[in-house]
C-alpha cells in the first residue's frame, strides 16, 4: 500500500492556517472550558489570531459554519453543549447540529472540528470540558482534528 502518512502538526506547517471557532452560549461553565481548550490548542499550533464568534445555541452553529466556509477559512471548529432535558427537544437540537455540520463540511470541503457535547447530565459535560478535574478536553481535541484535516488537505493539493 502506498500513500503519505498524516502530516506532522506543528507551528511550521499550521501557523498560517485560517481557523474560525464558533461557540454556542448555553451551559456557560462547560462552554468556557471548551473555548479555553480550543484557543490553547490553536496557540500551541502557532495560530494566534483565530476568529471567535458566538451564536445563541448549538442549533445555530451550522448556518454560521456554512457562511464562514465560503469566506476562505481552512478549518472551522464548532463548540456547543446540549444536555438532555425532559422533552424531545434534545434529540432535535442534536440531530440538527450534527447533520448540519456534517453537510456543511462535505458540501464545502472545509473541515469542521466537532466539539459539540451531547450529554445526559451536566456532570458528564463538565468531565469533558477541559477544566480542573475533567478527564477529557473536547475543545482542544476538536481543534487538533480540524487543523490536522486541513493540513492533510493542503498536503495533497500542493505538488
Ligand atoms: C432551546 C435549547 C435547549 C432547550 N437546550 C439547549 C442546549 O442544551 N444547548 C444548546 O446549545 N442550545 C439549547 N437550546 C437552544 C437551541 O440550540 C437554539 O438556540 C434555539 O432553539 C433557538 O433556535
UniProtKB/TrEMBL annotation:
It catalyses: (2S)-2-hydroxy-3-oxobutyl phosphate + 5-amino-6-(D-ribitylamino)uracil = 6,7-dimethyl-8-(1-D-ribityl)lumazine + phosphate + 2 H2O + H(+). Catalyzes the formation of 6,7-dimethyl-8-ribityllumazine by condensation of 5-amino-6-(D-ribitylamino)uracil with 3,4-dihydroxy-2-butanone 4-phosphate. This is the penultimate step in the biosynthesis of riboflavin. Pathway: Cofactor biosynthesis; riboflavin biosynthesis; riboflavin from 2-hydroxy-3-oxobutyl phosphate and 5-amino-6-(D-ribitylamino)uracil: step 1/2. It is an enzyme of class 2 (transferase). The keyword ATP-binding does not apply. The active site is at residue 89. InterPro entries: LS (IPR034964), LS/RS (IPR002180), LS/RS_sf (IPR036467). Belongs to the DMRL synthase family. This is 6,7-dimethyl-8-ribityllumazine synthase. Keywords: Riboflavin biosynthesis, Transferase. 5-amino-6-(D-ribitylamino)uracil binds at residues 26, 58-60, 81-83, 114. GO terms for molecular function: 6,7-dimethyl-8-ribityllumazine synthase activity.
Amino acid at each position: 500500500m502506498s500513500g503519505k502518512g498524516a502530516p506532522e502538526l506543528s507551528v511550521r506547517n499550521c501557523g498560517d492556517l485560517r481557523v474560525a471557532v464558533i461557540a454556542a452560549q448555553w451551559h456557560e461553565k462547560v462552554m468556557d472550558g471548551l473555548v479555553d481548550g480550543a484557543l490553547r490548542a490553536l496557540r500551541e499550533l502557532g495560530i494566534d489570531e483565530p476568529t471567535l464568534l458566538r451564536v445563541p445555541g448549538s442549533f445555530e452553529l451550522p448556518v454560521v459554519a456554512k457562511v464562514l466556509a465560503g469566506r476562505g477559512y481552512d478549518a472551522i471548529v464548532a463548540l456547543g453543549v446540549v444536555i438532555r432535558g425532559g422533552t424531545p427537544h434534545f434529540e432535535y437540537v442534536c440531530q440538527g447540529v450534527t447533520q448540519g455540520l456534517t453537510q456543511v463540511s462535505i458540501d464545502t470541503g472545509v473541515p469542521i472540528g466537532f466539539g459539540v457535547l451531547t450529554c445526559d447530565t451536566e456532570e458528564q459535560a463538565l468531565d469533558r470540558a477541559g477544566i480542573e478535574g475533567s478527564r477529557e478536553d473536547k475543545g482542544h481535541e476538536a481543534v487538533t482534528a480540524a487543523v490536522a484535516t486541513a493540513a492533510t488537505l493542503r498536503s495533497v493539493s500542493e505538488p
